[in-house]
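The instructor's notes for this session suggest beginning with a concrete chain rather than abstract definitions. Hand out the sequence below and ask the class to guess, before any prediction is shown, which regions might be ordered.
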Amino acid sequence: MLVAAVADNGVIGADGDIPWRIPEDFAHFKATTLGHTLVMGRATYDSIGRPLPGRTTVVVTRDPAWTAGEYADQVRVAHSLEEALRVAAGLPGDVMVVGGAQIYALAMPHATHQVLTEVHQEPDGDTRYPPWDRAEWVETARDDRDGWGIVWWERS
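After discussion, reveal the predicted structure:
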């Protein structure tokens, strides 16, 4: 499952941060991912700075020497997406890919579900969600809010 917040122009990040603040979406992300295993790239992990409570973390990095520092005993490290998915499959809950752009792009062919927060803004940013063919997906639920919404997709 891919979990992301995406602006109307495809932006998901700017300078290692999220270019908007929607507290309700942070609550949605927490509720959606709690108890599950998160797969993320090293830059995404570094932007968060720690493993998220109540979730298992697998970080994908090409750097064979990278560790999670003081959290090394709480974070699994993988050196490819395929390795991360194998590791994550044996960990608690569902496997949820949570960023960044390269990891989303690599995971898209494997994904059966996407939970996307649509942010109705067009911010400047240097990180974008990968293109995907909507014809391959079925929208299964939608929760529209003021200026944003959450959409659940399943691969058809």
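Then share the key points. The chain is about 20% helix and 35% strand. The first strand starts at residue 2 and ends at 7.
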